[in-house]
Amino acid sequence: MPPRKRHRTSAPRRATATSSSPDASSTQALPANLLAKIVERTDVATIVRCAAACKPLRREILTPEFIRRVCQESDAVVPSTILGCLDDEMTFSLALPGTSAAALSFARYHLAPFASRRAADLIEKYTFATSRCGLVALARREVNRRRKSERRSDLCVYDPMTDARAFFPAPPDIGHNPYHGLMGSVTVFSYVILTAAADGIGCSFMLLAADMASGFEGRCPRVQTMSSSDVTAAGGKWSPIVTTDHNCPWWCANMDSYCDAAVVLGGGVVHWLMHAGASFFAQDVREYILTYDINSSTAGSIDLPQERQVAANTRGSGSLLAGSSRDGKLRFLATNGFVVSVWVLAPEGGGWARHAQVDMEAIWSLSEFHPEARGVYLENFGDQRSGAVFLRVGDDPDTLCSFDVEAEEPRHVMSWFEKSGVPYEVDFASRLASMKAF
User: What angle do CA 234, 238, 242 make, to 5 degrees?
Assistant: First the structure.
């Protein structure tokens, strides 16, 4: 006989009453300005992540007051500028003297590992062409002219901080002068990067290709451009070639003439320091600055300071460099032995004014590096606005020294690094200000 079922003699247990959860509408959100006060005490990587994650916070981060606090004040957590070198393996090394702790932290723990990890596929196929404003232009190492699919990616504009990439073909009408290379090495072809933040152009970036070889017609430069909007809208189509009406000096027809890396000032005016080669066409060493206005498509020239218009027999006494100063003015530097001289060009044709003259001999005599050297030489690193100047000691091509021309005691701001790859400079204040508000 089956056992009898037990009957429940008490009511079933009920769940213990708990306090009701608050409505979502009653949750108090932190104000965006209070969040911004918290975020500004972190670091540059956290600030960028927060700007990408929260719309109200992003609007606070993009205000000029926030950018000034995090970039310019004494306890700033965002370095105003970082400058270093990207080598062939996309490894970043700082080169700017007096680098802040914020810059060291960002370069070591964020930029360097991110760039080397993400760009592994690029460094196998591309080599450096130029860099400016946080962007790097890369050119394919080996161009296969029979494969159209590869020709569409001859060039790449790369952002090491975000891994953003834009591919397009090489300019079809630039860099194919039949006179190139007939009488020695020629460096008359130049790529220049322009950006919306630095140059006020109507797109995120523009790549300018210029050929300064005038041939025998005596006119240069010839220019083609490709903008970020052209990459997406026109499928990577270069602009029609622009031939300027500027009459170059007669020695520009020399087959061994060359130019230094470009310098771009505000408003999109590009400057190249041009050099005459030591061929039999010219007995004097001649230099001048060639300019091109991207907005008006016109070219011009600027003479160097009178003290630097020297003859061929004194060519070895120094080297020349054009660069942009911290306030955006054109700067010209020259060396004579261990003396570095700096001139700044006054606006609206005001002429050159000597800005500084630094004797480096006492510093080198106390240094263990190349004590037998008889002088220093400027190494052209193009358009850097951090105030750093790069020097090469004697004939050593591998080791450079960087120092700040604005410092009163350069001995305390010198740092050594191995030359490798291309310079890479980021202006974080401009970078934050150029972020889109949404």
Answer: 140
Summarize pLDDT for 19-39 with one digit per residue, the tens.
555 555 556 677 888 888 898
Separation CA 171–CA 242 (nearest Å): 12
Handedness of CA 45, 47, 51, 53 (dihedral sign): positive
pLDDT of residue 96: 62
d(CA 158, CA 424): 12
Q: Are 115 and 134 in contact (CB under 8 A)?
A: no
CB 58 within 8 A of CB 437: yes
The predicted model scores a pTM of 0.78
Where exactly are the structural domains of the chain?
A: 32-78
Those residues with Cβ within 8 angstroms of residue 159's Cβ, 6 or more apart along the chain or in another chain:
134, 135, 136, 165
* Phi and psi torsions of 77, nearest 5°: -95, -10
Tell me how far apart the alpha carbons of residues 353 and 361 are, in angstroms, rounded to a whole number.
24
Task: Tell me the pairing of strands 399-404 and 415-418.
Answer: antiparallel
Calculate the CA dihedral of residues 343, 347, 348, 351 and round it to 10 degrees. -20
CA 206 remoteness from chain centre: 13
- Rg of the chain's alpha carbons, rounded to an integer? 28
The structure tokens 């001995």 sit at 411
Angle separating helix axes 44-53 and 32-39, nearest 10 degrees: 160
The Cα–Cα gap between 72 and 429 comes to 9
Whole-angstrom Cα distance, residue 291 to residue 271? 5
Parts of the chain with a pLDDT under 70:
1-28, 74, 96-99, 143-151, 175-188, 213-219, 232-235, 249-257, 277-285, 309-319, 362-373, 380-387, 395-399, 405-421, 437-438
Q: What's residue 371's pLDDT?
A: 62
Structure tokens at 141: 């190492």
Beta carbons within 10 angstroms of residue 339's beta carbon: 16
Give the per-residue pLDDT at 201: 80
Written as one letter, the residue type at 292 is Y
